[in-house]
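Inverse folding, one chain.
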């Protein structure tokens, strides 16, 4: 599969994409975080963090908890590191290069997982969602946010297809929210 600049930003154009994501995807971050009900001691993982916009907001909800992030783009990794130097230095945030297809966190080690505007690019969504299910702790929560659009990549997922996908991958209490004004779909599943 060819990812293109949105799916795997690289080089100068990739950096420009990253800046655009910072500007454009502002609604997704608070909307997704609020649905995870993050607790002060949670371990939180973001998959496909792009420029790393969510980390400061997540860190404000944590005390002893930690944040982890994986993204398969070296350009995004560097941009996100630059945008979150303080959190990394404080040991609250751990970012690394990695793909959802090769998720290697220990079983039951993560309490909350979020992935925003990213699932369109996954090669095997059910396989990856099952892996996420394995690394989630008991009562852990996954939030998937996508744009609800009839164009381009965004049309790959609908409320119905996201519900089916989460149920097929073993998630319980699946809830799908449509944020009409923001044109977003947020899918929540529990371990
Ligand atoms: C459209 S950007 C969205 C970035 C950010 N979440 C946002 O909403 O602003 C998609 C991001 O997911 C990453 N990505 C895509 N497929 C991935 C995969 N299979 N594993 C890890 N990261 C992936 C890309 O490198 C890119 O940074």
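Residues assigned per position:
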């Amino acid at each position: 599969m060819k990812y293109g600049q949105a799916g795997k930003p690289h080089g100068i154009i990739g950096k420009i994409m990253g800046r655009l994501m910072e500007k454009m995807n502002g609604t997704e971050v608070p909307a997704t975080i609020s649905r995870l009900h993050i607790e002060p001691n949670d371990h939180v993982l973001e998959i496909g963090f792009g420029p790393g916009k969510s980390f400061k907001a997540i860190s404000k909800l944590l005390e002893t908890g930690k944040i982890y992030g994986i993204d398969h783009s070296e350009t995004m990794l560097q941009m996100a590191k630059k945008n979150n130097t303080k959190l990394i230095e404080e040991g609250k945030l751990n970012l690394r290069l990695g793909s959802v297809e090769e998720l290697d966190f220990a079983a039951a080690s993560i309490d909350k997982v979020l992935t925003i505007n990213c699932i369109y690019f996954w090669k095997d969504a059910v396989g990856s969602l099952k892996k996420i299910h394995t690394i989630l702790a008991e009562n852990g929560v996954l939030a998937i946010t996508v744009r609800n659009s009839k164009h381009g990549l965004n049309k790959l997922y609908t409320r119905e297809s996201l519900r089916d996908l989460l149920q097929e991958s073993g998630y319980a209490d699946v809830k799908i929210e449509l944020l009409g004004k923001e044109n977003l779909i947020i899918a929540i599943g529990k371990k």
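The first strand starts at residue 43 and ends at 47. The radius of gyration is 15 Å.
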